[in-house]
Amino acid sequence: MSPDTSPILRVAGVSKTYAETVAVKPLSFALPAGSVTGLLGGNGAGKTTTIGMVMGLIEPTTGTIEIFGREFLKDRYHALGRMNFESPYVDMPHRLTVRQNLTVFGRLYGVRGVADKIEELAGDLALKEFLDRPSGRLSAGQKTRVALAKALINEPELLLLDEPTASLDPDTADWVRAHLEDYRRRRNCAILLASHNMAEVERLCDRVMMLKEGSLVDDGSPAELLARYGRGNLEDVFLDVARGRGNGAAA
Ligand SMILES: Nc1ncnc2c1ncn2[C@@H]1O[C@H](COP(=O)(O)OP(=O)(O)OP(=O)(O)O)[C@@H](O)[C@H]1O
C-alpha cells in the first residue's frame, strides 16, 4: 500500500472580514504531515485570525478548511482530539493548580493515563517545581511552558502555535524550539506557527508564508526567500516585504 500523502490541513479560499476590516483575504495552503509552516507578517497582518479560523474559534467569511481529510466546520469532532494549539492570549483558570488545569485539559482531550502523561510532560518541560502551584502565580515564561504542555497533552498530529516563545528568555526559548523540533520528528506532526521571531522561523520552518494586510505576498522555504530577496537573513526579507521593496513576489 502506498503511504498516505494527503495533507493534514487544507485551507482553500479562506477569508475573514470583520464589520469594516478585511483581516484575511482569500488564502489557500496545505500542510503535509511532518511539515512546519511559518506565518510571518507585521502587526495586524492576519496571522492570529488565520490560526483562529483553523482552530475553529473564528468563523471564516468564505472558503473551506479540511483537517484530516474532512471539512472541519461540518465535522469538528473528527479532528479536535488529534489537534491542539498554544497561544499566549489564552489563559488558564488562575485558581486551579498547573496539575489540575492539565488534568482538565487531558480529560477534555480523552487522554488515557492523564496523571502519567502530566508527569512525563513536567519532566520534559521542567514544570515539576510549580506543578502544584496555582496557575495564576506563575511567571510569564513558566506560563508559556505550561501552555506548551497543554498543547502537547494529547500528542497532536496538527499543532497550531501563536508566538510559542513569546516572553521566554533566549535560553528557554531555544530549549522550547529544540523540544518542538524533536516532537515534530517523533510524531510526524504538522505545525503551523505564527511568530515575530525571525531566527525561530528560520530554524523551525521548512516553508514560510509572508502576510501583509491580510494578503499572502510571498511564500517559500527560508532558503528560497533569502535567495529571492538577495538577503542573508529573514529579518531583512521581512523588512523588504513590510516596506514593499526587493525582488520578491510582492515587489
Ligand atoms: N474581533 C475583531 N474585530 C474587528 N477587527 C479585528 C478583530 N480581530 C482582529 N481584527 C483586525 O483584523 C486584522 C488582523 O488582525 P490579526 O490579529 O489577525 O493580526 P496579527 O497578524 O495576528 O497581528 P499581531 O502581530 O499584531 O498579533 C487587524 O486589522 C485587526 O485589527
TrEMBL record:
<dbReference type="InterPro" id="IPR003593">
    <property type="entry name" value="AAA+_ATPase"/>
</dbReference>
<keyword id="KW-0813">Transport</keyword>
<protein>
    <submittedName>
        <fullName>ABC transporter</fullName>
    </submittedName>
</protein>
<comment type="similarity">
    <text>Belongs to the ABC transporter superfamily.</text>
</comment>
<keyword id="KW-0067">ATP-binding</keyword>
<keyword id="KW-0536">Nodulation</keyword>
<dbReference type="InterPro" id="IPR003439">
    <property type="entry name" value="ABC_transporter-like_ATP-bd"/>
</dbReference>
<keyword id="KW-0547">Nucleotide-binding</keyword>
<feature type="domain" description="ABC transporter">
    <location>
        <begin position="9"/>
        <end position="238"/>
    </location>
</feature>
<dbReference type="InterPro" id="IPR017871">
    <property type="entry name" value="ABC_transporter-like_CS"/>
</dbReference>
<dbReference type="Pfam" id="PF00005">
    <property type="entry name" value="ABC_tran"/>
</dbReference>
<dbReference type="GO" id="GO:0016887">
    <property type="term" value="F:ATP hydrolysis activity"/>
</dbReference>
<dbReference type="InterPro" id="IPR027417">
    <property type="entry name" value="P-loop_NTPase"/>
</dbReference>
<dbReference type="GO" id="GO:0005524">
    <property type="term" value="F:ATP binding"/>
</dbReference>
<dbReference type="InterPro" id="IPR050763">
    <property type="entry name" value="ABC_transporter_ATP-binding"/>
</dbReference>
